[in-house]
Design brief:
Its EC number is 2.6.1.42. Helices cover 24% and strands 29% of the residues. It is α+β, with helices and mostly antiparallel strands and 356 residues long. The chain binds 2-OXO-4-methylpentanoic acid (COI).
């Protein structure tokens, strides 16, 4: 399949006027990638076209039963002026893994990655140049068949949109405050907690709104069975640096397998740290915060990058980690990861792909 180019003339294109303090996910570029699928026919109609609203039948499956999956990755403007993608092949593989779980058609990973690069190249003027900002890339697939019975859709659309972004949290690289909920759960074993599907995020809204009212930036989820073991933050995976061990919850099916998570584990192991993927109880975290055994806590994600956590609230008490300061490990990981992403440091793992 070829990607048809339906591009706006130069005089109709917008541009990024102010590059500093970019909001997250509110500005969109001029073009999008689009293709559709019909059962028995496969994916077709691949094109890069002007960014525009999508017209769907009110009976479309996605509206009623949420058959939808997405991805999130970024294009970085490098110190040498070249545009870099960070491990995009991992996002493509995760997209197809999500598709299988949600009974949706897989895509040709190489084809979609090439199309994504072509789109970023078309929109290269939109990649912000300030360090810390990037062009956020959002691929999304949804079931569009007009049918009210509950079954996998026979029709789908897939698109990629782009958004120049700054930091995800208003705190930037400063420690955030997190609320640990034992009232709500995000995902249960056997469910779709390890899939990047919209419903997981909708299900998290009530807890985050309640946390925000108490001035906490995000919610830390506990497991659904015992409400005891730490899972993830919903927009990021979570790490705890206990004395000589960097620990993160194991991927047991209820946690999103983050690409930043995977990269942090690899870098920390290569630096000689003992890294464990295991069950971590909230009691262990809080008693370690009190005794000082917990040296640091931070989240990892594409949008959030490395996000230090300075405070955890649980059952009406607030626990301070590292005096509410960014710790040296979080800083070192942040510097190394962003150094690779922006090209100011070598890429020993071959994680970078260039555009074009
Ligand atoms: C990402 O980090 O790319 C995500 O998908 C989190 C998002 C929901 C903001």
């Amino acid at each position: 399949m070829k990607v048809e180019l339906k591009l706006l003339p130069a005089e109709k294109r917008g541009r990024l006027t102010n590059q500093s303090n970019l909001p997250f996910g509110r500005i969109f570029t001029d073009h999008m990638f689009y293709m559709f699928y019909r059962e028995g026919e496969g994916w077709q109609g691949a094109c890069i076209k002007p960014y525009e609203p999508i017209c769907l039948d009110p009976a479309a499956v996605v509206f009623h039963y949420s058959q939808t999956i997405f991805e999130g990755l970024k294009a970085y403007y490098g110190v040498d002026g070249r545009i870099r993608l960070f491990r995009p092949e991992r996002n493509m593989a995760r997209l197809n893994r999500s598709a299988r779980r949600m009974c949706m058609p897989e895509v040709d990973e190489d084809f979609v990655l090439q199309a994504l690069k072509q789109l970023v190249y078309v929109e290269r003027e939109w990649v912000p140049k300030e360090k810390g900002s990037a062009l956020y890339i959002r691929p999304l697939m949804m079931g569009t068949e007009a049918f009210l019975g509950v079954k996998p859709s026979a029709e789908y659309i897939f698109f990629i949109i782009l958004s120049p972004v700054g930091a995800y949290y208003k705190e930037g690289f400063n420690p955030i405050k997190i609320y640990v909920t034992d009232k709500y759960v995000r995902a249960a074993p056997g469910g779709v907690g390890d899939v990047k599907t919209g419903g997981n995020y909708a299900a998290s809204l009530m807890a985050s709104e309640e946390a925000k009212k108490l001035v906490y930036t995000q919610v830390l989820w506990l497991d659904a069975v015992e409400r005891r073991y730490v899972e993830e933050v919903g927009t990021m995976n979570i790490f705890f640096y206990f004395e000589d061990e960097l620990a993160t919850p194991a991927l047991t099916g209820t946690i999103l397998p983050g690409i930043t998570r995977e990269s942090v584990i690899q870098m920390a192991r290569d630096w000689g740290l003992r890294v464990s993927e295991r069950r971590i109880s909230i009691e262990e975290v809080l008693s370690s915060a009190e005794s000082g055994r917990l040296k640091e806590c931070f989240g990892t994600g594409t949008a959030a990058v490395i996000s230090p956590v300075g405070w955890l609230a649980y059952k009406g008490r607030e626990y301070v980690i590292n005096q509410g300061q960014t710790g040296p490990l979080a800083r070192k990981l942040f510097e190394e990861l962003t150094g690779i992403q922006y090209g100011s440091r070598p890429d020993p793992y071959g994680w970078i792909q260039f555009v074009p």
